[in-house]
Each structure stands twice: as C-alpha cells, then as structure tokens.
C-alpha cells in the first residue's frame, strides 16, 4: 500500500477516515482511546502542511438523518483541547469544504449520509471529490466496505494508508504472522458462539489457548460438570470438546459463584469459591476462581507472544473482577510482545490502569476479531488494489 508518511502533502487537502466511534454517556466521552490513537495521524498530516478533513462514523444512527445523539460534536470539542490548531465541525460538506493548510475540519457523522453503509457510488465519488489525497486510518472500521472506508478509496485521486492503520496491521502481523513462541491467546467474553471462528483460528496457531468468562463455562460443562445457573451453550459442547482434542485449552478448574440475580449484582456482591465439580443448581459462575486465575497467569508468564480479547468474569463489578485482574496484571508484567483488542478488553485495561504496560492496544473491536480470523479487511484490500494499479 501507499503510506501517508511517504507522501508530500504540502498544500494538499487530505481527507482522513478515522474511527472516532467512542462510547458516550450523556454526551460525555467515556473512553478517549480511539481519539487519542487518531491524533498523531492528524498531527502528522498537519505537520506536512496539509489542510486536514477528518471523517468518521459514530454509533449506528438511522441512515440519512441527522440526530444530535450521534453527532461528532463531543469528539470535536475533545480534539480542540488536544490539538493546537482550530478544529471545526462541518454539517454540510458533500458539495465541498473550505479548509486551509494547518486547519482541521471534522465532517459530521458519515452515517448521516444516505448510501454510506451500501457503499453507494455517488456518495463515494462525492467524498472522493473533497480531497487531493484520501487516507484510510480507521483500523476499527476496516472490516466495513462502506462509502467512507471503501468507496472513497476507489475514487480518490490518491488513496493511502494512515500511520495508525499501518501500526495496527504491523502489530497484528507480528503477533500472528511469525510469532515468537510460545504464543498464548486469552479469549474471554460471554459466548462461544460469538467467538467460535476466533477460537477456531487460534486453535490452529497458538501453543496454548486460555478461555475465560461464559466461554469457559461451556468448556467446564464439556468436561462433565454441572454449571447450575451459569451462562453456557449446551449446543456448543461438541465444539468445545473438539477444540480440546486439537489444542491445549485452559479453562476454569475453580470458579467464583453468586446466588444473586443479575439485578442485584453490585461491587460488594457475595461470592463463593468452588471447584468446578461442586457447583449447585442455584449458583451462577461469575469469575475464575483463584486457582484458575493463577494457572492462567503462570501460562501467560511463560509466553513470548500474547493476544488478549475478552474478560474472564463480570469485571465491571469489583466483586467479580479478580480473575480478569489477575490475567490482565500477568499480561502487563510479562516481557512478551502483548496485544489486546476489543471494547470490553480495553475497558478492563482502563479499570486496572494497565494501558502503558501492554505492548500494543488495538483500537479494533470487530475489525480486530476479523483480522485474527484471517479474513480480508475490505478497506485495506482496496488500498492494495489502488497501489498496484
Ligand atoms: C466498532 O466499534 O467496532 C467500529 O467502530 C465499527 O462499528 P460498527 O460495528 O457500527 O460498524
């Protein structure tokens, strides 16, 4: 691909697609990870003398309609705090934007444009006509073939990969391509079904696969244990067994359980520690037990490359967070090349304040998983095609 860093951008209008899809709570950004990751790319384009247009989606609004709830205004306010040049928000931009070198104009949520998700040709051409150079930097949205990620790259005078996208692809390539071994993957989260292709892909390349959360529960059940009220997927027990036959899979041998219903969960909910063959019908597995967490930590310690996606328990509540915390700290303390991705995983890293101790934190959720699964990212593929043409 052509890289933005290799281009002369002096006096050019550069349109950068970022993934500024941040979580919001009553208009406040609750995690700035994605914006912070985009800032160096925007700054680099400014430093090269460009007029910078930035575009992104936010959430999943009704396409073709403006709505305040999904406006990028809070992101623009944050960018204004962080960048030393003025950052403005353009609501109507499809017929042209006035931006001078050294300025940043953020285009309002691309999903307010009819045709965005369908990768509409007319819309793509209008976006492409706004710039001299299009830069795809939104790794988190690279798995979407949409007008602002894919179509625009087809028609822009020049289409290049931004620094963040390049870093993400390099880091994931390093972890998955020819990793230093042992390679250990930790896959948590609630359901085997939603991570089946990831588990399958990992089973073929990792030395040890550690599973946590609800995923672990299905493995616990596959070993013949009763799991009481716990979240698990009976129909996926054969898959769990198959994965265990082909790969070393580490799942819980002891667990923390609660008898509280979901609506009663709190930071100081009462838990009990049980071996997995002692779980009662009225109990729900909520976290790894100490023995399981220590075992996972020991395996992490021996790894040279670590990939982490998904928590090992309901870490949002302190009472159920010890397993995830032990695993997260083991990854942070490891000398291995470690990479973490996914919204919940980033939230856990935030909660335990470990962001500086992980080698690479991916801004991708779905894109991270699709890359790991070995799928082609359409927004990257088009850049490769353009570079060849
Ligand atoms: C994400 O949060 O994974 C990306 O921003 C993509 O968002 P989407 O799933 O709404 O396309």
From TrEMBL:
It is an enzyme of class 2 (transferase). Keywords: ATP-binding, Cytoplasm, Glycolysis, Kinase, Nucleotide-binding, Transferase. Substrate binds at residues 19-21, 34, 57-60, 111, 144. It is found in: Cytoplasm. Monomer. Belongs to the phosphoglycerate kinase family. One of its GO terms (cellular component) is cytosol. (2R)-3-phosphoglycerate binds at residues 34, 111, 144. It catalyses: (2R)-3-phosphoglycerate + ATP = (2R)-3-phospho-glyceroyl phosphate + ADP. ATP binds at residues 195, 316, 342-345. It comes from Catenovulum maritimum. Signal peptide: none annotated. Its main location: cytoplasm. One of its GO terms (biological process) is gluconeogenesis. PROSITE patterns: PGLYCERATE_KINASE (PS00111). Its EC number is 2.7.2.3. This is Phosphoglycerate kinase. Coiled coil: none annotated. InterPro entries: Phosphoglycerate_kinase, Phosphoglycerate_kinase_CS, Phosphoglycerate_kinase_N, Phosphoglycerate_kinase_sf. Pathway: Carbohydrate degradation; glycolysis; pyruvate from D-glyceraldehyde 3-phosphate: step 2/5. GO terms for molecular function: ADP binding; ATP binding; phosphoglycerate kinase activity.
